[in-house]
Amino acid sequence: MVDHSATVATSLDTGTRHRDIEDCVSGSHRRDVQALLADGSAGIFPMSGFVSRTQSGAAVVMALLVVAFAALLVSGTFQRQSVMARTVENHAAAAQTYWLMAGAVDWVRVILREDARASATDHLAEPWAVPLEQTRLNDDERDPAWLDGVVKDGQAGFNLRNLVGENGPLLTEIAVLERLLSVAGLNEMLAEPLAQAIDGELSLRSTDNRIVPANIDEFTFTDQKLQAALVGLRPFVTILPVTTPVNVNTATAEVIAARFENVSLVDARRLVASRDRAAFKDLTDVLTRLPDLRPSASAGQVAVTSRFFILEGAIEFRRARLHQRALLRRDQGRVEIVWKSEVRA
Q1: CA-only gyration radius of the chain, Å
Q2: Model pTM greater than 0.85?
């Protein structure tokens, strides 16, 4: 049996409250109150519409936040993919520049090999000595690749390796270094300590495991005066794997004046002017160009040919640029790469 007494009592109580309110309100307001009372058992202040509108606004805000977060994730993903694609493209361009540089080095090797077959001397009017201005390697619609470079005679300068002797620096070569410091406007009193420092770096007499410098940039002296002197000599000196004579067909007037004991800088400039009109054919030709001075030199000190050449070139492709320097050695019709190094800007 279902007890309906409680339900009936509740209904009677609700009806009683409605009649009490209606009795208190008269006129046109009674209909409004009756409408409010008819809204349900929640009371005379209905909240269902307000709650519905609040929930709808929160849902809209939540949806906007979700969309914004999703857009942020998608944009970040696209950005990372773009960076990865750009990185891969840059690596591919850098690899391409290395291959192009390898081709340029091989090209120079062919030029030097053909020069040895066609000429018995090496001078600055030969094809290998002509600098290559920036030149485009391709003429189609693909991304352009640019090459520029220059080949220099490695024996145009005073070879610092010549200073090294079995028991220390050679006195004859120290004298050459002293004259070179003088004509370069540097302190000639630094010749002996500088020769000692260079001999210490290049000599193989030491038993410690150290790396022997392969070029001028690898010399580092603790004495700042010696380091400054070496920097000042940079245009006139070189360092090669073995002792070499100076090629008077490519050497500067300063190097020639230092190499010949009784030739002044003025006389050396006269010799260079004569050489530019007609390259020296042999050592006898060199000695007869200045008959009043009669300079003396041996085949181990001066020459009119060269075995070592320095190539310096740069390749540009897309966003990649490679600047490289290489030492080439030519012997018996063969041209080999002694070392290559990347030049940092």
Answers
A1: 45
A2: no
